[in-house]
Amino acid sequence: QVQLVNSGGGLVQAGGSLRLSCAASGTIFSRNTMGWYRQAPGKQRELVATITSAGSTDYADFAQGRFIISRDNAKNTVYLQMNSLKPEDTAVYYCRIDMFRGVSIAMTYWGQGTQVTVSS
């Protein structure tokens, strides 16, 4: 069993910054990908960014150049630094971990979500 605990959301003005954190605990496979997803009211959940245990990153187009994903493997923690925030970034942000056996995802866990609100 794995638990993901998010922190760092809140209210910020447009143009501001926020840093989200997500700490994983439990039995965590060494090969894993951690990521951030978001869901705005009335919309589907969408990918924001992911980072593998080897440090490879992937970003959604809207996040490229404004958001930075990073991780501390010793702490099993993933971070999302969000800069130049826009009102359209308002959403609940969820972290997720995919754990691999070989090339297949063996298990996926989600965090509880944290609200990010960007005022204009």
**DSSP strand count:** 11
Q: How many helices in DSSP terms? A: 0
Largest sheet: 7 strands, mixed
Rg, please? 14 Å
Proportion of residues in helical segments: under 10%
The low-confidence parts are: none
User: Could you state the order of secondary-structure elements as H and E?
Assistant: EEEEEEEEEEE
Question: How would you characterize this protein structure?
Answer:
By secondary structure, the protein is mainly β. It contains no helices and eleven strands. Strands 2, 4, 5, 6, 9, 10 and 11 form a seven-stranded mixed beta sheet that branches. A four-stranded antiparallel beta sheet has the order 1-3-8-7, with no helix packed on it. Strand 9 and strand 10 form a beta hairpin. It is elongated and about 45 Å long. The model has no long low-confidence stretch (mean pLDDT 96).
